[in-house]
Design brief:
The protein has 16 helices and 9 strands. The chain is an alpha/beta fold. The two termini are 31 Å apart.
Length: 347
């Protein structure tokens, strides 16, 4: 008998159910820690070519599913494909990370998002093929970068330690910054809805730089755009869950679920246990093992896994890392993590 989509464990948790042992996936689970990924990556002309070539993007998305049997697959792409669709000359330089042409206040009005879907059509094709090729019980996640985080790269042209260029830009040019955020919010909602239409079961919004914002700016630049995206999805594709991951937001996560409307709150590894438990009272949470434990392995990994399960395992939890898995992680440690989480029910 064929497994129905309703048996997808991740979707059950996103609906607020407690599943034990909890379902597992890892942020950046298709990545440089896997030798098969590095081999596929070498066959691409560049990183964006890997993202925009469905044959390759499908392959690297499926690699960790084949190897580890995760409960969810996440589309292989990048948060900067929207600036790329806006002709910001996005490129990935080995050893330097993502680069693009920094945007000035007077150029924001010239941004043209009319080619978004045409530019990102290979991504939608990847999603369609993934849903067809994945096991029925595996949840397929789409994603985008949050408007604030994407804006920080567009303004600086690269990543910075504290995103001071974007914060200064917002202070000095508030009207231009607001226009940029509104545009990115609308395009991000369009992009996620197109991924849902192509077959994504749920979507995640990555606000990787939420933690550099003050309380006031967090409400304006992080919460408000995500709230608008979630409202669009709820209105136009009702029933599709949204995971919100505001890395580094700390105590500001207390009201993140109610403020944004997300179904699940992603927790980074610095979130205190008491706060994590309090957030979980409102619904699903995701996280929050320190990614360095995947490098350390051994007792450090076991202790970290047990701590997450002890803190959050009695409620709706999707087991994940508190940020992406690093290239230095040992694949054997991933196997160890999965065995320990899934074996918890017998202990």
């Amino acid at each position: 008998m064929m497994t129905k989509s309703g048996d997808r464990k991740v979707m059950k948790v996103l609906a607020g159910e407690t599943v034990f042992p909890p379902p597992i996936w890892l942020m950046r689970q298709a990545g440089r820690y896997l030798p098969e990924y590095r081999q596929t990556r070498a066959s691409a002309k560049g990183f964006l070519d890997l993202c925009y070539t469905p044959d390759l993007a499908v392959e690297v998305t499926l690699q960790p599913i084949r190897r580890f049997g995760f409960d969810a697959a996440i589309l292989f792409s990048d948060i900067l494909v929207i600036p790329d669709a806006l002709d910001r000359n996005v490129r990935f330089v080995e050893g330097e990370g993502p680069l693009m042409d920094p945007i000035s206040p007077d150029k924001i009005a010239d941004l043209d998002g009319s080619r978004l879907h045409e530019h990102l059509s290979p991504v939608y094709e990847t999603v369609r093929r993934l849903r067809a090729e994945l096991p029925e019980e595996t949840t397929l996640l789409g994603f985008c970068g949050a408007p604030w985080t994407v804006a920080t790269y567009m303004i600086a042209g690269h990543g910075t330690p504290d995103q001071a260029p974007a914060r200064l830009f917002a202070m000095r040019h508030p009207e231009a910054f607001e226009k940029l955020l509104v545009m990115l919010t609308d395009l991000s909602a369009d992009y996620l809805i197109a991924q849902i239409d192509a077959g994504a079961d749920a979507v995640q919004i990555f606000d990787s730089w939420a933690g550099v914002l003050s309380e006031t700016d967090f409400a304006r630049y992080s919460v408000e755009p995500v709230k608008r995206i979630v409202a669009r999805i709820n209105r136009e594709r009702p029933g599709v869950p949204v995971i919100g991951f505001a890395k580094g937001a700390g105590a500001l996560l207390q009201n993140y679920r109610s403020a944004t409307g997300v179904n699940c709150v992603g927790l980074d590894w610095t979130v205190p246990a008491a706060l994590a438990q309090d957030i979980q009272k409102g619904g699903a949470v995701q996280g929050n093992l320190d990614p360095l434990r995947m490098v350390a392995g051994g007792a450090a990994l076991d202790q970290g896994v047990d701590a997450v399960l002890e803190t959050l395992g009695q409620g709706p939890l999707i087991f994940n890392l508190g940020h992406g898995i690093t290239p230095q992680a040992d694949p054997e440690n991933v196997t160890r993590l999965i065995e320990r989480v899934r074996g918890a029910a017998q202990s």
